[in-house]
Amino acid sequence: MTTLGLTINGRAYGPTDVRDDLSMNDFLREHLGMTGTKFGCGAAQCLSCAVIIDNPDGTSSTSPTCVVSAASFDGKAIRTVEGHARDGELTALQKAFIAHFAFQCGYCTAGFLNEGQALLERLAKAPIARADLETTIADALDGHLCRCTGYIKYHEAVRDVILADPKRYLA
Ligand code: FES
Ligand code: FES
User: Fold this and answer.
1) Most buried pick, 57, 90, 101, 144, via CB within 10 A?
2) Index of the ligand 1 atom closest to the CA of residue 45
3) Ligand 1 atom 3: residue of nearest CA
């Protein structure tokens, strides 16, 4: 057993004892009932299980949760799909996903949302040239699988959010 304490969507959880072999995905879904984070391949191949990690240096990144132990998240701060909207108000990216009909079954959506949000936060800190935008979005979303093939619509939704605020995201 390992003692786990972490912050999820701004709220402290634990410390609590967890099995060493408990995955972060099972911790979120089975222990906390946070089922917005999905379980797809279970092999770090689809990223439907990805969450945002808020790093100590102020940057954010994403991590799969299916093949990563819950214990390894001790002391970390993460965000899940449940943490994006504030007081019922969807984020610009969530609204763009809806406007583009980016998802169908929605199974992959939490992963794409977290990845897209992490990209927006990265670009807000380090804006890029407009000419690099398409590749940057494609690279960021690469690895996320959507069986309903919403790839282009997800890409367009992220692009719309960036182009709606070019002073923030583009150099
Ligand atoms: S379920 Fe984690 S990468 Fe597919
Ligand atoms: S919307 Fe169904 S898997 Fe992506």
Assistant:
1) 144
2) 3
3) 44
**Ligand 2 nearest atom to the CA of residue 105, by list position:** 2
Cα 134 to middle of ligand 1, angstroms: 25
Structural element, H or E, at residue 112: helix 109-125
Nearest to 112 by CA among 30, 40, 43: 40
CA of 117 to the centre of ligand 2 (A): 18
Indicate the pTM of the whole model.
0.97
User: How far is residue 147's CA from residue 114's CA, in Å, rounded to a whole number?
Assistant: 18
Q: Token pair for residue 95?
A: 């609204």
Q: How far apart are CA 72 and CA 17, in angstroms?
A: 13
Give the model confidence (pLDDT) of 94-152 as tens digits: 999 999 999 999 999 999 999 999 999 999 999 999 999 999 999 999 999 999 999 99
Q: Tell me: cis bond preceding 166? Omega within 30 of 0 counts.
A: no
